[in-house]
Amino acid sequence: MKAGAFSHAERENVALVMPDTSPRGDDVPNVDSYDLGVGAGFYVNATEEPYSTHYQMYTYVTEELPALLESQFNIGKNGLRSISGHSMGGHGALTIALKDTNKSWVSVSAFSPICNPTKCPWGEKAFQAYLGSIDAGLAHDATVLLSEKGGAAGYDEILIEQGADDNFLSGGQLFPENLVEAAKKAGQKVTLNMRDGYDHSYYFIATFIGDHINFHAKRLRSKYAEILALESSSILDFSATTGKEITCKAMVARAPKQPLTLETITVGVPQNGEVRVKVMANALCHTDVYTLDGHDPEGLFPSILGHEAGCIVESVGEGVTSVKPGDQNADTSTFPSVIPCYTPQCAAPGCIFCQSPKTNLCPVIRGTQGQGLMPDGTSRFKDKDGNTIYHFMGCSTMSEYTVLAEISCAKISKELPLQKACLFGCGVSTGLGAVWNTCKVEPNSSVAVFGLGAVGLAVIQGAKMAGAGRIIAVDINPDKFPAAVRLGATDCVDSSNTNVMRSALECAHRGWGTSCVIGVAASGHEISTRPFQLVTGRTWKGTAFGGFKSRRDVPLLVQRCVDGSLDVDHFITHTLDGVENTNAAIDALHGGNCLRAVVRY
Fold first, then answer.
1. What is the pTM of this model?
2. Which of 18-27, 162-171, 308-317, 469-478 is predicted least confidently?
3. Is 422 a known active-site residue?
4. Is 307 labeled as catalytic in the residue annotation?
5. What is the mean pLDDT of the chain?
6. For 95-126, how does the pLDDT look when each residue is reduced to its tens digit (9 = 90+)?
């Protein structure tokens, strides 16, 4: 707590649990010494009197505390936990992690740890008092434990921070060099950062605690993705469906302004250049509701809506090379994760749109996509009576399975859970790209954002990341202002003006201001302004999918999220299970306090 770790943990969306160094209480035996008794339990199970009854810190940290956290707080299940510590706590973190044989810990790090306690005064004193001899402490010595590994590395990396001016380092208490040497022989990667000018204090920890929380958070996210994937492994044997039609559940839009209907549909075999995917998570976007309400001039019925999803590849048609199904063994790690992209990228040498850095609007399948069909002019969806159901935006992800054009599939890292990755299929990418690609917001510039839905908040987040000096959030609902401020808004304006597209242009800076139109407008709507506004140097632009080239750029956005430099958790305000709950997600979106409702299939 003294090191200010909470703000870093909040950004990384991890919980911090800080157990004590030793048991406490009036009946707990103690000595008048900072390095023994209630000041230093040394994270062992004491066998010697008077300590054996209470000093069972190893069992407390490895068994009792994890069980308590799982049962009472629902955190740390399936080994989704990491361990770190300082000084004696660093010794505890290292030895507990290295002694573990059950994959109880995802990662381990330490600040100024006691690395070779059987060779230092602190360790000798503790082991003699708690265990009866120094030799008994060999089982709790990180350097010895690594020496006994015999070339079997247990972690991808162990991170250690050490102050070069630490008096305990020079005083013969810590011995990080011994640990590093043992690690080399064991084949265990250890990163030891020697920090000049730093001692053993909490100021040292405060300086680098963010690096350690990021270190653990990245590995926890990767582990979490594995857990989610394994939970679905029972349905991932696609050997029975490859090359055959699939029968599954889908929410079908039968008519405008009518609730979606849960139906059993047939999904056809992918044809040349097509990919059939299993949808794992779908986020509801306002464009889906806009179409369902009958405002989309290209809206077709009956259709399967949805275009913001995370999927895995079930099978592919002829000629597909960029993605392929995994080995048919229900091991999720072999199945590619993809995000369907309504803005495709054929990347063909002859496509002037894909080859140009000025646009992302590949037109190769635009004609058939707008007709609700696959590139060959037919649909892959049939209802129970054999009637055609139309595709939507080339995606149709409100179905347990769907078929996509290969050029609409962005293959992404498996390390990000698909219930988060799905957000990059539309709204978040659009908002970020409007800032970074379309408007190219410069450091210290001023940005006004009209409308604070998920896209608007993504614009604010992107503007903050781009270094904008002033970010003005404008909305008719002041309840949205706190979220805007948390993401970087410096000013909030409660406006009753709904003619926002014209207002946004006319408030742009004379001479060089840019206004960017994002999103869709109802059929028949037009925008207008006086020519004077453009003559005096303002630029009026629009953006689709934020100008990102989908198959190239979406994987990069996902990787930034995996690396911890791009947070998206705050966009997910509602989570539901089962495609049949899509109407409930629509109700949540209409409720006014929903940014993204994610439905897990």
1. 0.76
2. 18-27
3. no
4. yes
5. 93
6. 999 999 888 999 999 999 999 999 999 999 99
Candidate list 11, 366, 560, 570, residue with the active-site label: 366
311 annotated active-site: no
pLDDT of residue 594: 94
Tell me which of 362, 439, 516, 594 is the catalytic residue.
362
Average pLDDT of span 319-347: 79
Active site residue 286: yes
The reply to whether 351 belongs to the active site is yes
Tell me how crowded residue 181 is: count the other CB atoms within 10 A of its CB.
Answer: 15
Q: Of residues 226, 308, 400, 415, which has the active-site annotation?
A: 308
From the candidates 354, 409, 561, 594, give the one annotated as an active-site residue: 354
Residue 395 annotated to the active site: no
Q: Is 287 a catalytic residue?
A: yes
Residue 133 to residue 47: CA distance in whole angstroms:
11
Q: Which of 115, 285, 516, 561 is catalytic?
A: 285
CA 277/CA 238 separation, integer angstroms = 11
DSSP readout, 428-493?
A: HHHHHHIIIIIS-PPTT-EEEEE--SHHHHHHHHHHHHHT-SEEEEEES-GGGHHHHHHHT-SEEE
- Determine whether 439 is an active site residue: no
Give the pLDDT of residue 331. 45
Sheet with 446-450, edge to edge strand ranges: 446-450, 470-475, 491-494
Residue 349 has pLDDT above 80, yes or no: yes
Q: Which residue has the higher pLDDT, 69 or 520?
A: 69
285 has catalytic annotation: yes
Band (235; pLDDT cuts 50, 70, 90) = low
User: What totals of helices (H) and strands (E) does the chain contain, helices first?
Assistant: 20, 20
Examine the residue annotation and report whether 409 is marked as an active-site residue of this protein: no
